[in-house]
Amino acid sequence: VQLQAFGGGLVQAGGSLRLSCAASGRTFARSAMRWFRQAPGRQRDLVASITSSGTADYSDSVKGRFTISRDDAKNTVYLQMNSLKPEDTAVYYCNLQFLVSGLTYWGQGTQVTVSS
Description:
Blueprint: E1 2-6, E2 9-12, E3 17-24, E4 31-38, E5 45-50, E6 56-58, E7 66-71, E8 76-81, E9 90-98, E10 104-106, E11 110-115
Parallel strand pairs: 2-11
Antiparallel strand pairs: 1-3, 3-8, 4-5, 4-9, 5-6, 7-8, 9-10, 9-11
């Protein structure tokens, strides 16, 4: 399984970006999908997750501003990020975990930079 994340970039505070993560090599219908982020000098933190049935969960820092969604027909998970803040600046990674085997895969990361 390969995960390809894209959609990052430079945006002003208050702006929006939409990240996408496409999986290839195997369908991800029976998997949980997650977005993590890692700022320089900091640990990688969970931002949002979505179950195979579509139940979403968010960290407190992004709740109400970010929306995670998935399109199993396209093997793609999205992260819509609105009202971006400078503290959202980080490399964002997508993560897939298959429900039965527990196998986990990571995407390569996409940089999000929010200027003040």
